[in-house]
Amino acid sequence: MVFQGDDTDTIAALATPYGESGIGIVRISGPEAKRIAEKVFRPKRGPALLQSHQIRYGEIVDPKEEGIIDEVLLTFMAAPMTYTREDVVEINCHGGFFVLQRVLEVVLREGAREALPGEFTKRAFLAGRIDLAQAEAVADIIQAKTEEGLRLAREQLRGRLSQEVEGLRGELLGILVPIEAYIDFSEEDIDPPSMEGVREGIHRIVAKVDGLIRAYEDGQVYRDGVKVAIVGKTNAGKSSLLNQLLERKRAIVTAIPGTTTDVIEEVINLSGVLIRLTDMAGLRDPMGEVEQEGVKLAEEKVSEAHLILLVLDRNRPLDDEDRRIFRELEGKKIIVVLNKIDLPPRLSEEDVRGEVGNRDIYPISALRGDGIEGLKAALVDAIAKGRARSEGGEFIPVNLRHKRVLERAKEVLEGVSEGLEQRIPWDLAAIETRRVLDTLGEIVGETTSEEVLGEIFSRFCIGK
Ligand SMILES: Nc1nc2c(ncn2[C@@H]2O[C@H](COP(=O)(O)OP(=O)(O)OP(=O)(O)O)[C@@H](O)[C@H]2O)c(=O)[nH]1
Ligand SMILES: [Mg+2]
Question: How many domains does the chain have?
Answer without folding.
Answer: 3
